[in-house]
Amino acid sequence: MKFVASLLIVVGFVSEAAHAQRVTPLRVEPPTKVLIEATSQSGLNPVEILKSAEFRARPGTTFAKLAFAFDKPVRLSAVQIEACSGSFSDGIDLFLHPGARKAYAEGGDTKAVARFQPVSTDVQSLALNFRHNDPVCVKNFKLLDEKGAVISLIEASEPASAKQGRGLDVAPNIPKNPKVDIGISQDVRAKLEANGLAILLDRELNQPDESGGWTFRFREDGSYFLFGHGNQSKEGSRFSSLGEYEIQNARNGRADLVLTGVRIASAMPWGGWICGKFCGDKKRENATRVRDVLVIEKISETAFKLRNRRKAADRAGLPSINLRVRSSTLVE
Fold this sequence. Notes:
Number of helices: 2
CATH topology of the largest domain: Jelly Rolls
Number of domains: 2
Radius of gyration: 25 Å
CATH superfamily of the largest domain: Galactose-binding domain-like
Shape: globular
Distance between the termini: 89 Å
Helix content: under 10%
Structural class: mainly beta
CATH class of the largest domain: Mainly Beta
């Protein structure tokens, strides 16, 4: 009996050893390197969110954007955004690149979650638009992979994907050393305030009473977004444009807005990436360059007139513009 027992112990030990040799060790994925930029921020650099710090946009800012450029493509099943306190008063738009992929995270709760079914693959960059949420304060941000596991993120100085040439989706749109306090220069802000035009910053200007009208956003970081049409009666003429703007000749309730960016055919508003000064450098396959000057003139406290300053032969990317818009996102 002792011999049999000893034999069983030996056989069991050998069997477990053989099984251990056949088991493939678990593969631990290295953290994904990421660069982060925001159109508006107050206090800490937005990259500090990776270190459990809070991200805050400037108070009074609407349509604030937070963008992430990844060193390598990621596979997303969900994105979770948690507010510092209270609930998100509005939802959050999510733009995924490459491709015109868009998702929405419902507001009304402390956590806003966007789920992707099927899993969204090969995501090289992600932009969050906080819409009408004001103030914006995020204390936790999670990306979930196809297995529901949290994707580990670490700060990168420059992702390898920055050198792959992906048009508007490339990582060079993010500065290598983002400033802690971004925004337009104080002298320009002072000029806007002196001429009654400070309300232009981080607001939405649109034609609320006209179906299929225009929408304009001029952010304090110097980027712009617009959604319009080349010919309202022609199907498929809708487009989005994003890039940077420069304010010139601000006086007596009017100013020239010099636009440099791209125009993208889109049936729905597409304001995914933070383009900045890089927007005019490269273009996607369906994008054309925008170089134009818009004159904006204040009519009342909430109404403005917008028109092209240049003649058709001297501008690029935008059709004839001569319309009245209203600010629909005033701070109460």
